Amino acid sequence: MTAILGLSAFYHDSAAAIVVDGRIVAAAQEERFSRVKHDERFPRAAVEFCLRAAGLAIDEVDYVAYYEKPLAKFERLIETYLAFAPRGFSSFRRAIPELLRGKLDIRRTLARELGARPRRLVFVEHHESHAASAFLPSPFEEAAILTLDGVGEWATSTRGVGRGNRVELHDEIRFPHSLGLLYSAFTHYCGFKVNSGEYKLMGLAPYGRPKFAEAILEKLIAVDADGGFRLDLDYFDFPHGLRMTSRRFDALFGGPPRRPESRLEQRHMDLAASIQAVTEEVVLRIARSLHAETGVENLVMAGGVALNCVANGRLLREGPFRSIWVQPAAGDAGGALGAALFVAHGLLDRPRPDRGGLDAMAGALLGPAFGPAEINAALAGWAGPVRRFGERSERDREAARLLDEGQIVAVFQGRMEFGPRALGARSILGDPRAPEMQSRMNLEIKFRESFRPFAPCVLAERAGDWFDFPETASSPYMLVTAPVHEKRRIALGADDARTLAEDPDLIRRVNIPRSTIPAVTHVDQSARLQTVDARSPDLRGILEAFEARTGCPVLINTSFNVRGEPIVCTPEQAIRGFAATGIDALVLEDAILEKDSAARANEKRLRGEHLARYELD
Fold it and tell me: pTM for the full model?
């Protein structure tokens, strides 16, 4: 037996993963245990979970694989500061002490945190970790590889090919030229938090027009026909300073960055649409070039930019590849898994197992599950109504009834998801046919901006009947957008069309029904799709029961968390989140919890305490 523990830490979204004899046993982000969103610290609790899931002690682990090379990153920081000196001194003064406090001498840090010196410690380059996480668990025997993110050691993008158990990268773009950092610069400029607000910028884009795209391509980024690109660094501060953008950037786009939580103007929506359009164009050019170079029909992707599901959707519809697979934990958390798989297959030459055309991610359900004793202990703290079900099908039918009656139902079942998306194990579900459901869920439950769209989950075999989605494609990890099928759309009257295009009030725009499933139809008639098959049996059971009752095989699926918190991990956290929000019912394994008058009265107080506790981002 060969056990490999993969780790990512000390930047954002730290995580651990364990691979035994080439099989992925467990993986989880530290934030789910620490309750610190995007926690960057050493993933102590995630490591403990992974070891427990594998039935191993740390001294039984054969290899520890770290997702990047700290000395190479240190070299990049020093060279960058020297290149921009003396302008970078303030940033240099902040960064170097952090490195010297454990991020540089990672061997000693890991030995201290793990409680034992690893038998064999392997440092895998950052983008090699991304590439391995993209190809090695994919369903393909051969695929082109594309990684795109902010920055690793030096690389910000790599291209290559995976064959069998090998990952070969043959081309890279280096810092400071970065598509991920360009997108993050606009995230910052539009008033959202870098490394977490990029989803908001992507969701805001359909409300605007790409009127600044030409300026971005003329002034900020030069893009070659093959997707190679270079930034004009006069417009950015990130290589050497404490801000993302420079005064020249501010002048180009009409003023200083938006203050967080201040009113969104049409200018911000147009900026979001513009950088989204440019990002999609760069990704498409790279993909076309990569396909021509390799002659391979499959593409795999990882890195933070690979989480841009709108770009992925265009790539699937318009790109040259027959099939696309994106690592569900495409960001830095997935680097822990990629590093472990790189050692297992790339260094130890273990063949990849035959998975019958499926990927190796087990539906991304790689986190902890909780047994009857733990569920019963959590239920003991709930004073409201509880119903237990002997048969899972009976529970699913009752959940479907509640959803059909307009109730919002949270679910906590099976193993927790690995990656940023809730896929039915730690989810909040709603009826997509209800026009008011998007605003209600945003404002009463998620406590977030009203413009944020919700994703649909749909029975995989029904996807083509509700969305413009190829029959041969799948999107099990909610990483591709697709247009709502034309036959499901609602023709807009002149007044509604004008409101949708021009009204500065985003709530009025959101509340205009655009299809028969308005709660998951974005303003541009798109939806971020999750296709549900046998890999997610618990969610599939509820969907099947809902279709049997209503004729609709689609539900809203959003993550079971509220603003400022990570997705819930334990049954106690699920009950606490249920109690403090407008969620009507909670499916907790074989039980359904509901609220009586006392629980409803307590809800407002708990909600206020939550909002006071967490800083809004």
Answer: 0.94
